[in-house]
Amino acid sequence: MQESIRVALDTVPGSYKGENTLKESVIAWLTDPAHNAFVNNLLQKPEWVSEFSQSTADEIINSLKKRNDVADLMESIFKMAAKEGITALSLTADSLCAWIKDVVEKNCIKIVLIWDEFSGFFRQNRNSLDEFQKIVALCQETHFYFVIVTHPITSIAGASISKDDPMSVVMQRYKQVEITLPSNIAFELIGHAFSVIPAAKDQWEVMTGDLNSKVSASKEAVKKASEVKSDSIMQHMLPIHPMAALVLKNIASAFQSNQRSMFDFIKTPKDLDVHAFQWFIQNTSPISDRPLLTVDMLWDFFYEKGKDYLTSDIKLVLDTYPQQTNLTEKEKVILKTILIMQAVDQRLGGAIPVLKPTDQNLSYAFEGDWDVYENECKSIAKALVKKGVLIQTPIADGKQVYAAAVLAGDGAKIDKLKEEVRKNGTITKLVEEGTQLASALSLTPSLRLRYAVNTDTGALPVVTIANFTRAMDQLKTKDVGWHFYAVLAVAKTDEEAQTFRNLIKKTIASADYKNILVIDALSSPLGLEAFEEYVGFSAMSMYYNGNNNQQAKDNARKAKEVLDRTWKDRIHDGAFIVWSYANQDGEKATGANAVHTIMQTVVLNRYNHIPDFTKGLTESQLKITTAIKQIVKYGFALSNDVNQ
Predict the structure, then answer these.
(1) What pTM was estimated for this model as a whole?
(2) Predicted pLDDT of residue 337
(3) What is the pLDDT of residues 166-225, one digit of tens each?
(4) How many C-beta atoms lie closer than 10 Å to residue 294's C-beta?
(5) Pure H helices in 11-92
(6) How far apart are CA 380 and CA 212, in angstroms?
(7) Which of 556, 28, 64 is nearest to 308 (CA)?
(8) Quick one: which of 481, 529, 521, 527 has its CA closest to 504?
């Protein structure tokens, strides 16, 4: 936070950076000869040799002055200060608040911080929210505004936040404002995102005016559905068809973790292998046969290139398309349009009638398009019904909607399969399936040789609340020798993590386990959102098994990737606590590299003069081969001869 404010201040000429700036305070403190000598002595300790790339206090000062990004170095300095009792360098919420107030007052400014994707912070720092609260409370004392954007899991079907979830504490403590994007605002933003070359602006207005006149009926229908009052807003979105714009806004919300948005669709570079807006305007013009970006043209971006991130309800509908063969190009275009409309309509629960795939709405979707589609879209759709690709179902007012024929009753089947996966998805099963979790820490070659069960993969035993005691009892009886033992602790939910952490604290207090490190990754549980993603893929794999084996394999692979990639990466970058008999209070670390430092320190404390962590050594040089053994024996023999 301090560094981000400093970067902003650097853009204001002559701004006051704060005499109490944390980095400058460190430099000033280290410049004192007595402090400088004290730190030089500390840097000789094995623990700090492995932590710092700098060898002296002067080298630290030089790095702080010359480097722009000093976040990692500052973290190491504050870690040393806390461990060695250097209170003058301790980074606290109070000292940060004092600095912010000083900067605001001296510069007569207001500071506004907007931090997105903050849900993970709350979950990983559930025990540190009081310190965070001090920073947020600054808004009551000075011109400091902190806007935190989170994405709570309550949007997941059937999900709710338990009283033990850190997000429940957040909801109690902080004022909340729900941010939604109404269609009328979305349309204005789409138009605003278009950048027309100034020299071509007049010509562009003429061309879009002509296109606007071709979509009058669909435009009015969409305006009514989206509460848009101004005709100019609709024109500014062209060449995106009004119906495509309405679908674009709503299908983007069906993507997990914001992997696809309507702005991504507009801004994705044309040279990437994806057919989005930039590709469209590069390959068409207002005088082309198909001058408008219609609903079917959303297919490549949102399905072909983005289906891995689609929610299962949308994907279930769109997955029926690859099952169809021997379709003409015209039939493919109509089928894509109907399936997209059907999927979005189902997701919205029928809330926007113009998105229901009826004959009238199909006509809206192709208004102003190539004559073949504009005039024949309904007859092509009926031909697909005759082929058994689509069915028509009656709804109110004597209308009928088109739908994928193979989906009758399938939603209920998949819901039942999801319940089965949820019931059987214990932490034990998840760890068994997530075989790559064991290598989440990406141990360096030297650490692999000291700690890993499998030196090729760098895997550590992964322990859960179900097998922790048994795993610890097995390790405590093993001969230590030059080897070290460590386990990686994981959990499925925040509630399970809290119970598990209490068990770890109780267990590690026994001297029986003095040779074992417990690397606690419980601040990065799988979580309900990722679990539901896993559930969706697993259920779809089970659904397709036997009738579409390729789809079954693809979904099984994606379910495994939730564990082996998504969860593994989150653990690697997340917050850790390293517990041991020697440190029963636990040592906090952020990111795998910080854990590596702690693991190195444990080794160096036992073997002060080993070369394991010497820079430049390769894994082959560290391994004890037969040839190396012979060389060592020969060296000892020579040494004995010399001594004699």
Answers:
(1) 0.65
(2) 98
(3) 566 667 767 778 777 888 888 998 988 888 888 988 998 999 999 999 999 999 999 999
(4) 25
(5) 22-31, 33-42, 46-51, 57-66, 71-84
(6) 26
(7) 556
(8) 521
Q: What is the pLDDT of residue 159?
A: 45
Q: How far apart are the first and last CA of the chain?
A: 64
- Helix, coil or strand: residue 537: helix
Q: What is the pLDDT of residue 478?
A: 80
| Parallel/antiparallel/unpaired status of strands 485-489 and 462-463 | parallel
Q: Is the dihedral of CA 184, 187, 191, 194 positive or negative?
A: positive
| Interacting residues of 327 by C-beta distance below 8 A, sequence separation 6+ | 335, 389
**Hunting for tokens 């010509």 — which residue is that?**
203
Joined together, the tokens standing for residue 622 give 């560290």
Cβ(338)–Cβ(331) below 8 Å: no
pLDDT, residue 494, reads 86
pLDDT of the residue at 576: 95
Note the pLDDT of residue 182: 84
Question: 587 — phi, psi (to 5°)?
Answer: -115, 120
| Exposure letters 253-287 (e unless 16+ CB within 10 A, then b) | bbbbeeebebebbbebeeeeebbbbbbbeeebebe
The secondary structure of residue 465, as a DSSP letter, is T
Cβ-contact 411, 524 below 8 angstroms: no
> Which residue's entry shows tokens 């995106």?
240
Distance CA 463, CA 407 (A): 41
Asked whether the CA dihedral 288, 289, 294, 295 is positive or negative, the reply is negative
Query: What residues are paired with 255 via a beta bridge?
Result: 310
Residue 180 dihedral angles phi and psi, to the nearest 5°: -125, 165
3-state secondary structure of 76: helix
Q: In this predicted structure, what is the pLDDT of residue 546?
A: 85
DSSP notation for 599-610: HHHHHHHH-TT-
For residues 579 and 520, the answer to whether their CB atoms sit within 8 Å is yes
Three-state helix/strand/coil letters over 395-416:
CHHHCEEEEEHHHCCHHHHHHH
* Distance between CA atoms of residues 35 and 56, nearest Å: 12
Splitting the chain (644 residues) into consecutive groups of 10 residues, what average pLDDT does each group show?
A: 81 75 81 90 91 92 84 83 76 82 92 80 66 85 88 48 58 75 87 87 91 96 92 93 94 66 84 87 91 97 86 84 91 97 92 96 97 96 93 90 75 87 96 94 89 84 96 86 91 92 96 94 90 90 86 90 94 94 92 91 85 64 56 54 50
3-class secondary-structure state, position 578: strand
339, burial (CB in 10 Å: exposed 0-12, middle 13-18, buried 19+): buried
- The pairing of strands 516-520 and 485-489 is parallel
How many CA atoms does the CB half-sphere of 374 hold within 13 Å? 14
The three-point CA angle 396-401-406 to 5° equals 130
